[in-house]
Write a structure and sequence with these properties.
By secondary structure, the chain is an alpha/beta fold. It has 3 domains: 213 residues, Rossmann fold; 284 residues, Glycogen Phosphorylase B (Rossmann fold), CATH 3.40.50; 109 residues, Immunoglobulin-like (Sandwich). The chain contains 21 helices and 24 strands. The protein is globular. It starts with 9 loop residues before the first strand and ends in a 5-residue tail after the last strand. Bound molecules: pyridoxal-5'-phosphate. Pyridoxal-5'-phosphate (PLP) binds next to helix 16.
Length: 674
């Protein structure tokens, strides 16, 4: 990108004792402009600075924080230099979270605002998605790295060191770190995880940021990932869809009604197309293997043996991903004799194609790759197992189009979503997976297989877990998958198998497409955020400033609020009979309109306390006049189920510009239960 004089457009961020400059490149990706920042330019004399953007993973923590300063702060500056002022910034994982600080600084500077004022207004336009429950995937920095890089910056924001650190403070074991996900959550108006199970796990991980809040109500929603069908589908299947489905499927693939017509596709056509993709995959895998063997120094005659591996008609199972250890790429190798029996059955052979890459710092993942390559050289397994190196989208496309089964066996619940298995749905493949990530909500027995029943094991039982789950996997293959695949009619068609394939497409296709995902992001986050941003910014920030003043006052004086008493009209509580509950609330300096007083009925845990799961919530209404700073609120309620349930009441903040009713630290419960 160039500036008005035609010179390369440069932006800069401040590093200790120097400016770091970056040039901006534009890439057109379909309909989207992607901007890239490039520090490898002569304006940066230091080699470390010039190399900062050369690779994603590499270098140390200092490299990492500088990359993230450049992406977050430099990213907003680059957009600004291009004349782009986004209404909403979606932070995908914590890596980009410094952008929220730069948006605050920008607004403070332009409108002469305090940090708090600018924070409230910009927060409305930030959305955050957390992508992993695995601690190694969470970005955290030691405080000294923050001090080294943010001394001047925090002074510019008008924050003391402690105030700045508070924005990202997280207790990790017995010490404290600056956590990018915490920063992102504090400075966003909405947070989501990438599957329903992952949202539940994330609420547990981050629940301590929301003291006194039932875990179910910790404001982390879920938007399950989806895949861009056009990117992953084979041309042949796309043609079949064009022929048998409403042509709108290409643009509106999230519509369930569209996919009902999958049943109209004749089984023999669908199967022929899928078998052709499998043959192409086998040819591709042999060719790749040939190149790999030559590169590793095998003689050409030995490398030529790759043309004899794999069988175009055999049941083909794919396993490809980043080789993080929790994904357990080697699980299927636990009982080698049993694996060999399954793979080399002369009438019903089974073959495996692996592909993957390990994170450069993940020694465990690299070791898994080494083991698989080693085991695939076993003479009995060699014809049935291939490992493809340098996993990328090209390999992924061949794999997801050609395999019959996609295998996924992570340790639950560490797979936030997983997406490769979704790519197979559209290509007439079936899934066999641990109930983790998307499969925990996608699975049903009529179209796939679940390894186990969603059990979770403590870390010291990992060996036992691997044993149990590998046995379950062998059982599924032997008893279900293999017999179903080879159960053929007179035309050699696996009719029952095809019934599974069609049920999987019909039911899962609209649910796991990126259209559905983007629609959910729009409805849950982008559009409500946009409305709040527009209201806050109108009339030179009038409502935004009023809101920020309201919120500061609330935070400062929230401690004045108390629930003084809680009583109810009937002591003979029977299911179905309604009764009245009254709460006397000391409002301090607030008005009933600032607050939401709620009756809360929930299951009791063993300590007879309200538990983690959200209960019934009923808004209570003011009754009578305010006396001595206190106001009575009341509601009618009836239990609809019996059992150990407790009643309580609570006070939350209320404002139409608040995105959620739950806010860190702004919740007060009745001390007594009636
Ligand atoms: C789809 C895909 C991934 C993501 O796979 P998960 O199932 O989400 O682990 C990674 N790499 C490539 C090349 C892919 O195509």
């Amino acid at each position: 990108m160039r500036d008005e004089q035609g010179a390369p457009l440069l932006i800069s961020v401040t590093l200790p004792r120097r400016e770091l400059y970056a040039a901006v490149w534009q890439v057109q990706v379909g309909r989207v402009q992607l901007y890239l920042l490039d520090s490898n330019i002569p304006e940066n004399p230091a080699p470390d600075d010039r190399n900062l953007t050369d690779r994603l993973y590499g270098g140390d923590r200092r490299t990492r924080i500088r990359q993230e300063i450049l992406m977050g702060i430099g990213g907003i500056r680059a957009l600004d230099a291009l004349g782009l002022r986004p209404s909403i910034c979606h932070m995908n994982e914590g890596h980009s979270a410094f952008l929220a600080l730069e948006r605050i600084r920008q607004l403070q500077h332009e409108k002469s605002l305090s940090f708090n004022q600018a924070q409230e207004i910009t927060r409305a336009g930030n959305v955050f998605t957390t992508h992993t429950p695995v601690p190694a995937g969470l970005e955290r920095f030691e405080f000294d790295l923050i001090d080294e890089h943010f001394g001047d910056y925090s002074r510019e924001l008008g924050l003391s060191r402690e105030e700045f650190l508070n924005l990202g403070r997280e207790h990790v074991g017995d010490h404290e770190m600056f956590s990018m996900p915490v920063l992102a959550m504090r400075l966003s108006s909405g947070t989501n995880a990438v599957s329903k199970l992952h949202a539940w796990v994330s609420r547990g991980m981050w629940g301590s940021l929301y003291p006194d809040t039932p875990l179910d109500e910790v404001p982390i929603q879920s938007v399950t990932n989806g895949v861009h069908i056009q990117t992953w589908i084979s041309d042949e299947i796309a043609e079949l869809f064009d022929h048998y489905l409403d042509p709108a499927w290409r643009e509106e693939d999230g519509r369930p009604d569209l996919w009902a017509a999958v049943d109209d596709i004749p089984n023999d056509e669908l199967w022929r197309v899928h078998e052709r993709s499998r043959r192409q995959l086998i040819a591709f895998a042999r060719e790749r293997l040939h190149q790999q063997l030559l590169r590793r120094g095998f003689a050409r005659s030995e490398a030529d043996a790759s043309s004899r591996v794999l069988n175009p008609r055999a049941l083909t199972i794919g396993f490809a991903r980043r080789f993080a250890t929790y994904k357990r790429a080697t699980l299927i190798f636990r009982d080698l004799p049993r694996l060999k029996r399954i793979a080399s059955d002369p009438h019903r052979p089974v073959q495996f194609i692996f592909a993957g890459k390990a994170h450069p710092h993940d020694a465990g993942g690299k070791e898994f790759i080494r083991q698989i390559i080693h085991m695939a050289q076993d003479p009995e397994l060699r014809p049935h197992i291939v490992f493809l190196q340098n996993y990328d989208m090209h390999i992924a496309r061949q794999l997801v189009q050609g395999v019959d089964i996609w295998l996924n066996n992570p340790r639950r619940p560490q797979e936030a979503s997983g997406t490769s298995g979704m790519k197979c749905i559209y290509n007439a493949g079936l899934n066999c997976s641990i109930l983790d990530g998307w499969w925990d909500e996608g699975y049903a027995p009529e179209f796939g297989w679940a390894i186990g029943n969603g059990e979770e094991y403590p870390p010291h039982e990992e060996g036992h877990q691997d044993h149990v789950e590998s046995q379950a996997l062998y059982n599924i293959l032997e008893k279900d998958v293999v017999p179903l695949f080879y159960d053929r009619d007179d035309d050699n068609l696996p009719q029952e198998w095809m019934r599974h394939v069609k049920a999987s497409m019909r039911q899962l296709a609209p649910r796991f497409s990126s259209h559905r995902m983007v629609q959910e992001y729009s409805e849950l986050f982008y559009l409500p955020s946009l409305q709040r941003v527009q209201r806050m910014q109108a009339d030179d920030l009038q409502q935004g400033l009023a809101f920020s003043a309201w919120r500061s006052r609330l935070e400062q004086f929230w401690h004045e609020i108390r629930i003084e008493s809680l009583e109810f009209s009937d002591t003979q509580l029977v299911v179905g009979a309604s009764f009245e509950v009254k709460a006397r609330v000391h409002l301090g300096r607030f008005n009933p309109a600032d607050l939401r007083v709620q009756l809360y009925s929930g299951k009791l845990n063993t300590q007879r306390e309200l538990g983690a799961h959200a209960g019934d919530v009923v808004d209570m209404q003011p009754l009578g006049e305010r006396e001595n700073g206190s106001q009575v609120f009341h509601a009618r309620y009836a239990y609809h189920v019996g059992g150990e349930r407790g009643l309580s009441a609570r006070v939350l903040p209320r404002h139409e510009l608040l995105p959620d009713q739950i806010h860190q630290g702004l919740i007060t419960w009745a001390q007594t239960s009636p």
